[in-house]
Design brief:
binds NADP nicotinamide-adenine-dinucleotide phosphate, 23% strand, 7 helices, 239 residues
């Protein structure tokens, strides 16, 4: 690692990915009809994690496919955030390389904290205008693909994001794993099988091709609560 990379790394946020998956490693059914299947405890766990983060990030389809606002949730979690030394409401970051977002999505009905959209040069000028009317800031970072390393430094520098929680989906996670930007993976393993070759998994997209390239992780914690397993993996290599 050269000195430039070291300086850049110190400007990156700490990044956590949180996902619920079935026992066969799926995060939704093959037809995408079901993507929320954890227990109420899993949902509480998600809100507890959000209460540790300056910003929460998800991909556009995740955001506009359900009644999701990426906010902190009920008052007790806002109090927890304040106790953790954070603002009462987290920033919300939406990722869409193509800028395709439903303007009527639930998230835009809740203005409690800034909404930032990350996109690429693939988004047309007309669409950019539409997104700028919806969000507090639209950041174009990359021609075809988002340069997440650069944009994460920007999030930390401009918006003060020191801790970023990513909530998928699989394509977004894969891009972050490949860029070596994920510090912790929080997995809820739910006792179900979805099956289906086309059902999305934790990390879809391009993936790694060789064993030597695979991202090594260490188990940080592993516990059973009710009928689910809550596991936390952390990175072993420096980014
Ligand atoms: N069980 C869970 O915990 C969980 C959590 C989240 C989502 N899900 C489910 O998983 C399924 C898949 O999720 P999804 O389709 O929302 O997400 P996804 O698989 O992450 O979507 C991939 C998209 O993210 C954008 N993207 C990723 N990397 C990029 C890069 N480097 N540059 C630019 N854009 C990039 C692209 O958007 P564009 O197409 O706009 O270019 C790409 O098409 C859904 O059914 C969802 O509901 C489950």
């Amino acid at each position: 690692m050269n000195s430039n990379q070291k300086t850049q790394n110190s400007k990156l946020p700490f990044v956590l990915v949180n996902m619920a998956m079935t026992a066969d490693g799926k995060i939704a059914t093959a037809n995408r009809a079901v993507s929320s299947f954890g227990s109420t405890h899993d949902h509480e766990h998600l809100l507890e994690l959000r209460a540790t983060a300056d910003a929460v990030m998800a991909r556009a389809r995740t955001v506009d496919s359900a009644a999701i606002n990426l906010g902190p949730g009920p008052a007790k979690f806002r109090r927890l955030r304040l106790k953790n030394g954070l603002a009462g409401y987290n920033l919300r970051v939406i990722v869409s390389g193509s800028g395709s977002l439903n303007p009527a999505a639930e998230i835009f009905q809740h203005r409690f904290s800034p909404i930032i959209i990350l996109t690429t040069g693939r988004t047309s000028k007309a669409r950019l205008r539409q997104l700028r009317a919806l969000a507090d800031e639209v950041k174009v970072c990359g021609r075809q693909e988002i340069n997440f390393r650069e944009v994460f430094c920007w999030l930390r520098g401009k918006w003060g994001v020191k801790r970023l929680l990513v909530e998928g989906g699989g394509g977004l996670n894969d891009a972050l794993f490949r860029a070596g930007l994920v510090d912790e993976l929080h997995l809820t393993i739910c006792p179900k099988i979805f099956g289906g070759r086309n059902a999305p998994a934790i990390a879809d997209g391009r993936g790694f091709r060789r064993l030597a390239e695979a991202l090594p992780l260490q188990i940080k914690s592993f516990k059973r609560i009710g009928n689910e397993v809550f596991a936390v993996f952390r990175r072993v290599t420096r980014r």
